[in-house]
Amino acid sequence: MTVRPATAADVPAIADLELDNLGVDAWSEGLVREGVVGNLPTISYLVAEVDGAVVGHATASVVADIAELQRIAVDPGHRRTGVASELLDAVVALAREGGADRLLLEVREDNDGAIAFYAAREFVEVDRRRRYYRDGATAVVLRRGLVRGCGGAQGR
């Protein structure tokens, strides 16, 4: 598996992953394209590739000392194979390189698997956003510190 920055050629695969994983909350192919080609200056797209096929993607924003994991999605046939972990590790590295001292994300409160995944990777709950998703579901805001003194990972 390879994790690399996304290119314009990856946009259709990323848009398909969005739809398959996020349904009504998926970002459109047009919005994905804007981010991938660099028209959204704080946004970075990464893809995970296996045998030449895009099997996962992550979208992150880094602004000053705060990074946000906006998206992470993995093809159902490649789940539980380490793809999400590799993508998350790449986002953490990207955030650190960009000068962030913490990484934030939102996850649906009813997504026990994702919450457990992030908890095992040193994320802690810091807030909740009621009616955050289109269907009215609540988002759990998670945070991982990226440097000493910022909580979570303690500078790893």
UniProtKB/TrEMBL annotation:
PROSITE patterns: GNAT (PS51186). It comes from the Bacteria. It holds the Pfam family Acetyltransf_1. CDD domains: NAT_SF. Gene3D superfamilies: 3.40.630.30. InterPro entries: Acyl_CoA_acyltransferase, Bact_Acetyltransf, GNAT_dom. Keywords: Acyltransferase, Transferase. Residues 1-147 form the N-acetyltransferase domain. This is GNAT family N-acetyltransferase. It comes from Nocardioides endophyticus.
